[in-house]
Amino acid sequence: MKSSKYLKISELAQLVHINKRTLHYYDEIGLFSPEFKDTNGYRYYAMTQIMDLSIILSLRELGMPLDEIRDILTGSFNEYTLSLEHKLDDIESKIRDLHTIKDIISRKLEYIETAERSHMEINRITLDDSYLILSDPLKDPSLLNVLDEAHQLVDQKSQYTLPNNEYGFMISTTKKFADPKDESYDYLYIDAPIDDDRHHLKPAGEYLSLVYQGTEDTLYLT
Questions:
Q1: Same domain, 211 and 133
Q2: Strands (E), 55-186
Q3: 41-80: pLDDT as tens digits
Q4: Residue range 69-94, pLDDT digits in tens
Q5: Would you report the helix, strand and coil content of the chain in percent, each value rounded to 5?
Q6: Domain count, the chain
Q7: Which of 16, 11, 95 is nearest to 50 (CA)?
Q8: For the chain, how big is the Rg over CA atoms in Å?
């Protein structure tokens, strides 16, 4: 007769809320096997095995492959600790990526809202300090060169493609006031992913935001 120290496969499955077929599969691949099988082939698990099964299930919930889990369980405690630390690093990296993607989506929604504003509508906005990554000075204002510079800047400084970056052009106000028709931009910029005083500071303050719909040929008239 089965001792009270052991659990049948159905009892263990119910206890940890998994399917019996999962336990059968773990046994087949040598990941988690019963303490013993009787002459009828029934599987019996020791109460002390619940902790090992809990570790397996928790690592699976973290997305760890079964072969890696097997290596952890057959290795030392230090290896188990290192595996968890590496997994934590992976999760934190994914969280940072998700925050970045969230920011990209939020910016795109803001662009859509801006695009729906009326032509020549001017808004006063308040911005916090932020930092910009600048390109090298733009010496050739031709469209092809500017696009090439833009892609080079993104390739070197960002993990996302140009359409998924907040970018723009900078032109000297002194030059613009001297010749309103001058569209020879000085720099291309993208937002710095973190505040870093090694980059160009866009100081906090009030700014004017204008929606212009048209070509650059008539932009100076605004």
A1: yes
A2: 122-127, 130-134, 167-170
A3: 889 999 989 988 998 998 888 888 998 888 888 877 787 7
A4: 888 888 777 877 887 788 888 889 88
A5: 50, 15, 35
A6: 3
A7: 16
A8: 30
Position 63, amino acid: G
User: How far is C-alpha 70 from the chain's CA centre?
Assistant: 29
Residue 1: predicted pLDDT: 46
* pLDDT tens digits along 10-40: 999 999 999 999 999 999 999 999 999 988 8
Q: What are phi and psi for residue 58, nearest 5 degrees?
A: -70, -40
**How confident is the model over 163-183, as pLDDT tens digits?**
566 778 888 888 888 888 887
Same domain, 133 and 206: yes
Q: Can you tell me which residue has the tokens 């890696």? A: 68
For residue 169, give its domain range: 120-221
Q: Which amino acid is present at 167? A: Y
Q: Using alpha carbons only, what angle is made at residue 203 by residues 201 and 209, rounded to the nearest 5 degrees?
A: 115
Cβ-contact 133, 153 below 8 angstroms: yes
